[in-house]
Structures are given as structure tokens and as C-alpha cells.
Amino acid sequence: MVAIIGTALHWSDVLVLLLYFLLILGFGFWSSCKNRGSVGGYFLAGRSMHFIPVGASLFASNIGSGHFIGLTGSGASGGIAVAGFEISAVHWLMVLGWLFVPIYIKAKVFTMPQYIKMRYGGERIRVYLTCLALTLSIFTKISVDLYSGAIFLQQALNWNLYASVIALILLAAFFTVGGGLTAVIWTDFIQTVVMVISAFILMIISFVKVGGMQQIRNLFPYAVAYTTLHNTTECGVPNQNYFSLIRPFDADLPWFGILFGNGVASIWYWSCDQVIVQRTLAAKNLTHARAGCLVAGILKLLPLFLMVFPGMIARILFPDEIGCADPDVCYQVCHSRNGCNDIAYPLLVLRLMPNAIRGLTLACMIAALMSSLTSIFNSSSTIFTIDIWQRFRRNAHDWELMVIGRVFVMILVGISILWIPIIRAAQGARLFDYIQAVQSFLAPPVAACYLLGVLWKRINEEGAFWGLISGLFIGIFRFIWEYSYTAMPCQFEHLDKRPSVVRFNFLYFSVLLFIISGIVTIVVSLLTKPIPEKYISGLTIFDLDNPEKAIEIPTRPGCMHKANAYCDDEQPYSFENSSSYNIGQSPTETEKKALQFFETDDSTGICFYLKTAFAWICGLEKNDQLDGQSICLDRNLHDNTSNRRSITSIRDDHVSSWHKQCSYVAIIILALCAFVWAFFTDYRIRLS
Predict the structure, then answer these.
(1) 356 in Cβ contact with 154 (< 8 Å)
(2) Counting CB atoms within 10 angstroms of each CB, which of 2, 11, 103, 518 has the fewest?
(3) Where are the transmembrane segments (predicted)?
(4) DSSP letter, residue 582
(5) In which domain, by residue range, is 211 found?
(6) CA end-to-end span of the chain, whole Å?
């Protein structure tokens, strides 16, 4: 971002921003009063959400402030090819809705590591995936969103970095702590509306300013900085395939790499990542979950028009600033020697948007940041509470789990605030290149573990574990090897001495790592004993109609916590009454003392009001929630009859008219994606 683009806001912009915050606060407070008094209500919105807010929340959780900065900057740098990541996501949303969600809903899980525990048994895979999910959430997702959001607020608006970001973090935490997933999804819905409307207005103004789509195509290859005209290299010159989504042999964004390499990461992100999947699990049934995926899929077609094309327009309108290639000139423009593409969106907002509308667009950026933070906060607290806390407190009560979930959100808030100095020091450095690379090196083994697990019963815990470990070591080895070298700036690429294996495109490496992890998983599984049928009934896509209930796979004692599906003394109970999950019990003495905190006969003193406020924040304002009864996970509360009804409901969904209509709409959306791929492909350039 750039200091030179900072500007004082007009009073109408400030008014719009204030109205936005009042709207979000009011809507967040209203939604915080819904579905908040139980574990299922707090972490999964009571499994009662309609498909429209589910789809909007999927989109808002994905589109953060980093998308507005990064996609627009990439469009300004190299054209529309980067939109291939967004369009290909539509395919993987369909995979989520039609392959993974039916299994997750039938298993009645809260978290993805929880499903892995059911599918493979043991504890070691679940612990690994839980730690990995929390690490990626804290050190990549929160970091990237705060990086782009904080720099935008500081440089584009001249707001104080610490005060503005801390205020937004605390506001996001208020929704997450007070209302749980219900508040997060409903505020995501409002913020999606704000983002789409404001970005659409900016797109229209940008297109009018430049003269339309054809003018973008005509002018973009000549949008170079004045200093670039006098150099002898191709640095700062747009890619010759700038108007083509499909670039088979492009060095940076090869189409096959986007389709398959990004597809591997997308399996992990869209189908196995807690932040995304948790939204579909909050839907009232399978049909609404699938319809939510369809809504998100339609919205994912918009970034090409709302972000990428405006980025190209910004380069046409401001070539000397956005198109700078000389490191010294770039540093004068945006205090970065690596280029100034990331200032494209702020420049458009501050130089093209009229008063009041500019305030709406700034609210769009704030909405993108907040929607991502609330999603990460809620999902991370869910994983910590269900997959870590319950390992140590197997008989934890309902109120305890809700309090712990909220406390962990506050811990995340503290970590986020501590990240701000690191983010500020990292401007212009390669820290965030490292962070993004970590995801591409760690995602393929996880994707293989989940995909093979839902497709093939023969995959067992030994195979899945060693597939994950082998992929982890290969990914870390490649990561360390690649970043042990210093990448040369564009002007000195001829001096690049890195081995060709290190320069191997990361998208192709993702495919290779996925294949290696899959082979290891399959081979080890075939060389070891299969998991008996009774332990995995209904936990794969081809076994959804199985009326039998899966029995919990025993865990061997010892430090490795392996699955032990072959012991003689079988467990006589299923997941519904497993000791791995809490069963209703009387509170201990310590818990009774904790509950006494909320009991008082004094209805006038300040202590009463403090206790009442604390109880409301923790979702414990109802007396019947303080009776010491333990709540298990939702699936533990159902008896055999209700469990069979849930299985039947999934089977009925498959033949319902709404399900068929969802499938027809999915086919139409995929056909629309194919049309977009074909329409925005320059075949003459591609074949030359």
C-alpha cells in the first residue's frame, strides 16, 4: 500500500461508515440472541440455517480483504488468469455439497478431526489434523487478513494502525463470543450484501471510466510505466496472454496447474477445512446445505468482474504507479521494492468513487476483513473445544464447553493483536510468501487422507497416518529447500542459480505430493489389516444408506494412540454412548462451586448485574442450563430411533424434488463455468 494515496474522508463517507457499523452492531446483537444456549446452538447454529445465509457465509468466509487486495493486484499485474482460481472453486463447492456433506451430516460431527476419529480410529491422526488446523488458522489466515486489512486502513485512510485493527478485532470477537455461529453467519450475510453492492458500483464506474470491455483488451498491453519504456527487459510489461483464462504453458499460472494443482488444495480448503465446512453443517438439512453451496458457487463467479477486471482498469488509468518496475521508483511510490500492484484497489476507491459511495466501498473492505475474522474465530474455537478440550475433560458439561469456546476466542483475539507489530515489520518482506507456501505444501496429504477415506473402505488408520507423515516430510523438505535460495528480482532473472527442481511450479508440486501421499496411503493400507465393517458403517459415500450404526474403534494404550480395530473384547456400544464423548453425569464439587457463581438471591446489587451480563455472554442466562446436566455432542443425545430417522432423512433427501432441483441447478452452474472458461480464452494467443 501507499502512503501517497491516503486522503481525508468526506463527511458523507464518515456517515456511511457509521451507518454500516450501526447496522452490523444491530444485526449482530439480534442474531446473538438466537441458538446460543447449547453446544449445538453455539458451534453449529442449532443446525437450523436457511440455504441463503449459508451460501452467503461460505462466500464471505472465503472472500477476505486479502482477496480485494490480492486479486485486484494480480489482475493489474498479469491479466485475468488469476480468476481461474475463483472459477475452479465452483467445481469444488459442488464436490463439497454432493460428496462430503452427506457423510458429515450423517456422522453428526462438529469438526473435521472428529470425523477422522470416527473413520480411522485412534487419536494420532485426529491430534495431528487438529494442531495443523489451528496452526494454519492462527499463523496464515488471521495473518493474511490482518496484513491486507491493516495496511489498507493505515495507508489508504491514514487511520491509526493499532487502534483501527484492535477495534475491528474486538468487534468481530463480540459477534463470535456473544452469538456463536448464528451471529457469524447472519453478519456474514449482511456483509456479503455490502461487499457485492459496493464492489459492483466500483466495477460499473471503472468500466465507464475506461470505455468498456473492449477498451480494456485494447489498452492493457500498453499500460506500462514511463520508466519501463526505456529498459531493455520485459520487466513491468503485461503478460501477452493477459486476456486468456487458459494458459497451458504459462510459467506462473499454467492452466493445468490451476485445474489440478489448485484442485488438490481446493479439496482440502473447500471440503476438509473447518472454516468452510462448518457453515454447511449449520444448514437445517442436506438439501439446504447443497443449496447453500450453489449460492456460494454463483457468487464465486463474481470476483472476475468485481476484482480482476477493475485491477486491469487501475493499471490502465494509473500506469506509472501500478506498473512501476524499477525497485527504487516502486519504493518511492508504495514503499515496496517488489512492485506496487497491491495499491490498485485503494487507488480506484479513492480516486474514482464519489463521496458517500466511497464510504460504502470502504465499508466493503472492512466487511471483508471482519467476515473472515469472525469465521476463523468461531471455527478455531469449535476445533479447540471439541477436539482438544474434550480430550482432557471427557465429561465436560454444556455450560463448560460454551465458556471454553468463548474463552478461546478471546485468546485468539490476544494473538491477533500481538501479530500487529509483526505484520507491520513484514511490509515489503517475504513473510507472507512463506505463509502461502506452507499451505500449498501441507494441503495435499490432508486432501488425500480425506478423499480416500470417504471413497474407499479399505483405507485404514495405518495407511492414512503414514500417508500424512510422508507428505508432511516431503512438503517441509521442499519448503526449506526452496526458501533457502533468494529469488532474483525481474531485472536479474538471468542470474538465477536455483536448481530446476526448486523452480518447479508449486501447482505441479501439489499434484505430485498428492499422488505420493495417496500411493503411500493405499500401499500401507493394503499391506495391513482392513478395518472391520462394523466400525465404519455409513462413513463412506457408497455406504450412506447402511442402517447399521458405526461402533467406535478402540484405541490402543500408549504414546502413539493407534487404532485397535482388531481386539477381541469388542465394545458393546456405539458412538452414541461412547466414553470418548461426555455422557450426562452429576456435577463434581468443583463444578457445583462454579455453578454457584450464577446463583444469587440479590436482584439489585452490582454483582447481580455483572453475573447476569457474564451469564448472557456465555449463553447461560436460562436457569435450566445451570442444573449440572451434561450435554454431549448432538449425536449423543439421540436414541436408536432418532438415529435411524436421521439416516432415513438422508435417504429421503436423495429422492426429494428439492434435491433433484438442486442437482439440476448444479449442472447449469457447471455449464456456466465451462462457458466462462471458453469465452475468456484467447485461442489465437493460446495456440501461438
Answers:
(1) no
(2) 11
(3) 12-30, 51-69, 89-107, 127-153, 159-186, 193-212, 253-270, 291-313, 356-378, 399-422, 434-456, 463-481, 506-527, 662-680
(4) -
(5) 11-490+499-540
(6) 37
